[in-house]
């Protein structure tokens, strides 16, 4: 089996995507959950579509994600060749850049492919109840 080349593994990590807009947060100490049940990207090796559910949980600090722009942002992955792991981590990175939340978790649960399911979770900040902490 041919090994993956660096260029394929890094494909589209830095691709230009629509801007995630924000709006000013009015409250403290609450959690927001966004679920994208029809997330689609493309396998960069095979060119075949990958489907899954991406869930975002976060506690906002000064800003919240504006949902319409976030929808257009996630729809841009539909034609993007990117691995599951890279997509989840890129989404987290872009959310942190846009709103600087107190903490955030992005979880991707991808549909069965080749007899296997894939779940990827990336975290930022001190996630309540998890004991996990991650910073860029």
Question: Key terms for this structure?
Answer:
136 residues; alpha+beta; two-stranded antiparallel ribbon
How many H/I helical runs? 3
CATH architecture: 2-Layer Sandwich
Class by helix and strand content? Answer: alpha+beta
CATH class: Alpha Beta
- CATH topology type: GTP Cyclohydrolase I, domain 2
* Mean pLDDT, all residues: 92
* N-to-C SSE string, H for helix and E for strand: HEEEEHHEEE
Q: Terminal Cα separation, in Å?
A: 33 Å
Question: Shape, please?
Answer: globular
**Strand residue percentage:** 35-45%
How many strands in all? 7
Number of domains: 1
Fourth-level CATH superfamily: GTP cyclohydrolase I, C-terminal domain/NADPH-dependent 7-cyano-7-deazaguanine reductase, N-terminal domain
Largest sheet strand order: 2-3-5-6-7
| Percent range of helical residues | 10-25%
Largest sheet: 5 strands, antiparallel
List low-confidence stretches.
none
| C-alpha-based Rg, rounded | 15 Å
Q: Summed up, what is this model?
A:
It is built from three helices and seven strands. 21% of the residues lie in helices and 38% in strands. It has one domain (22-134): GTP cyclohydrolase I, C-terminal domain/NADPH-dependent 7-cyano-7-deazaguanine reductase, N-terminal domain (GTP Cyclohydrolase I, domain 2), CATH 3.30.1130.10.
Write the layout of secondary structure elements.
Elements: H1 6-9, E1 22-24, E2 32-42, E3 49-59, E4 63-65, H2 67-75, H3 84-99, E5 103-113, E6 116-126, E7 133-134
Antiparallel strand pairs: 1-4, 2-3, 3-5, 5-6, 6-7
Describe this structure in words.
By secondary structure, the chain is α+β, with helices and mostly antiparallel strands. It has one domain (22-134): GTP cyclohydrolase I, C-terminal domain/NADPH-dependent 7-cyano-7-deazaguanine reductase, N-terminal domain (GTP Cyclohydrolase I, domain 2), CATH 3.30.1130.10. The chain contains three helices and seven strands. The strands form two sheets. The chain has a five-stranded antiparallel β-sheet with strand order 2-3-5-6-7, covered by helices on one side. Strand 6 and strand 7 form a beta hairpin. It is globular. It starts with 5 loop residues before the first helix and ends with a strand. The model has no long low-confidence stretch (mean pLDDT 92).
């Amino acid at each position: 089996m041919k090994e993956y080349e660096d260029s394929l593994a890094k494909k589209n990590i830095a691709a230009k995507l629509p801007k995630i807009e924000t709006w000013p947060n009015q409250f403290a100490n609450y959690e927001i959950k966004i679920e994208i049940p029809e997330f689609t990207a493309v396998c960069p090796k095979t060119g075949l579509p990958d489907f899954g559910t991406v869930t975002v949980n976060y506690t906002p600090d000064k800003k919240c994600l504006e949902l319409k722009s976030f929808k257009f942002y996630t729809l841009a992955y539909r034609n993007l060749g990117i691995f599951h792991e890279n997509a989840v981590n890129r989404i987290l990175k872009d959310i942190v850049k846009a709103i600087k939340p107190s903490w955030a978790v992005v979880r991707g649960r991808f549909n069965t492919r080749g007899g296997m399911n894939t779940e990827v979770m990336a975290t930022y900040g001190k996630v309540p109840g998890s004991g996990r902490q991650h910073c860029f």
